[in-house]
Amino acid sequence: MQMLLNNRGRIILIVIALAAVVATIAGAAALMGVREAEAEPSAPTLAPTPAPTPVAKVELPATGVARIPDGGADLWLGPDRDPYFRIHEGMALPFLHRSDDWLLVTTNCNDTAWVREEDVTVVAAGENQPVGPEFDVSQAVIVLDPGHGARDWGGVGPTGLAEKAVNLDIADRVRQLMEAPRDVDWNSGSVAPGNSVPSFGDVVLTRDVVGPNEGDFEANLGFRSTMATAARADALISIHNNTVPRVDSDIPGSEVFYSTAVEDSERLAGIIYEELLLSLSPFDADWTGGELLGARARLDPDTGEDYYGLLRRATVPSVIVEGVYISEPDEEALLASGEFRQAYAEAIYRGVLRFLTSTDVGAEPNRPEYFLYDAGTVSGDVCTVPAQP
Ligand SMILES: [Zn+2]
User: Fold this and answer.
1) Is residue 196 located within the same domain as residue 329?
2) How far, in Å, from the CA of 320 to the mean position of ligand 1?
3) Which of 20, 33, 137, 308 is paired with 260 by a 20 to 30 Å CA distance?
4) Structure confidence by residue, pLDDT tens digits, 238-292
5) Ligand 1 centre and the CA of 167: distance in Å?
């Protein structure tokens, strides 16, 4: 009996000891799991942007844009690790790094994740052709950035028209103009089907109507600028409309903000401004404007760098276009019409085309100003990566 008790006691002790070991292992595994889960979304550490090299197109571009096809694509914790999320079809995600057939993409929330190249369609990065009459438009890569999205409506008109939706539609119209061969009437500004200008090589939208919620999703500023960097775009055009004018104006109060970080941005802004005036002036409105018109730059007085994050991060010629004032009744009514949006889109099309294929200087830019106010932004604390339904 004593013997049995002893044996039973030993067995119980061994069972308890084993249970403790198992619990310890399980606890450690759970902790590791938690660490992995936490580490992934908070790892926006991006590889440094490779210097643009004017070499012939290589088979496997180190940077570029991954388009998510119908059915979505898996995001992975790492090559040969685990998929953890299926991202929504129709999105375009920039990648700044690749490892064999794996691409390290940046999501719309500016997190990084891996995708398999075979699961996406890669838009090769641009070739950084020199601008001028020899420029080959059929190889151009353009990034169009419709401002705002989701909770961030941007400006809102007196009848409730949301800037985010107007910007998206104008960007989509610019894309359609660029994706087919065209004839351009430089006197009237009209852009029609034709053969004198080929289709642009690749046009990428940061928010795309073929994407989640028809393009109405959050897009972090870092994600937007990374798109242009990864695509080695020939131009980044961020499309907006303004609020709170300062003055009445005889002409449209268009403003085009240029990046002081990339020299050619100033010329891009001046040319787009000229084309906006050509396209928008024929419309009838009690125009309003800001304290300045035309090509402008705003600097942070503390750092001397561009005030706007998108322009501060620029690595390619970059502008923010503020076409007209959505906060004013006449201008909101114009922005509600397809005819006006098309004219706005044609102006951007011609502006980009002239920038790339000519040596025109465009309207003389205003000198950079120190910006002493806070433009105000919607907090980026909450951001959702859209899941494939
Ligand atoms: Zn805006």
Assistant:
1) yes
2) 9
3) 137
4) 999 999 999 999 999 999 999 999 999 999 999 999 999 999 999 999 999 999 9
5) 8
